[in-house]
Design goal:
3-stranded antiparallel beta sheet; single chain; OB fold (Dihydrolipoamide Acetyltransferase, E2P); about 180 residues; 6-stranded antiparallel beta sheet; about 0% helix; 3 domains; mainly beta
């Protein structure tokens, strides 16, 4: 039979929660939670303490499983939820959202995002609206355009400003001459 209750305890190592059953004045034993994947592919997100859940229980409420958390008048779906949006909103405010109408995935993190992979590739244009900091060098195939000032460290403490940098004239086809002092 289906019963509703409030999660009172979590056991992350077993994937189980204890539930205080509404209208029964009793708490269950630790019950397994039904997950979309618990075998080869694993998905893990326990209902939180205080979450309202639906349970499938035996006739004496001695054993059962937690089917999942349910929204209630106290816990509404997150802001921005719709039939065409799949999203996870974490308690710290971080949101991962896929909007099918726009075919857009948005990660709105309150802190650092780390991507670990032996090889990363972005196909298509990349727009960065903040500072880029590299630590292992850069290789670029193709043209590079800059609309602002470009300064290169040419050996400490020498700086080369690529916007104003000039060389003493050299014969066509020959290597460039050393830079003009002070540029």
């Amino acid at each position: 039979m289906i019963k509703f209750g409030i999660v009172t305890e979590q056991s992350a190592s077993t994937g189980k929660v204890r539930v205080s059953l509404l209208g029964e004045n009793m708490a269950t034993q630790l019950l397994p939670v039904v997950f979309p994947g618990a075998g080869v592919d694993k998905y893990f997100s326990l209902p939180g303490i205080g979450d309202q859940v639906a349970c499938l229980m035996d006739e004496f409420c001695e054993d059962g499983v937690v089917l999942g958390s349910i929204y209630s008048s106290e816990d509404n779906p997150p802001s921005g939820a719709s039939s065409n949006v799949s999203m996870v909103r974490f308690s710290d405010g971080t949101i991962v959202k896929y909007d099918k109408d726009n075919a857009t995935i948005t990660v709105d993190a309150v802190s650092k995002v780390i991507i670990k992979s032996p090889d990363n590739e972005i196909q298509g244009p990349l727009k960065v609206t903040g500072k880029i900091t590299g630590q292992s060098g850069a290789e670029i195939t193709g043209n590079v355009e800059a609309s602002g000032q470009v300064t290169a460290l040419a050996g400490t403490p020498t700086l080369v400003n690529l916007s104003t940098h000039v060389h003493i004239s050299a014969a066509p086809g020959s290597p460039t001459a050393p830079p003009t002092p002070g540029t």
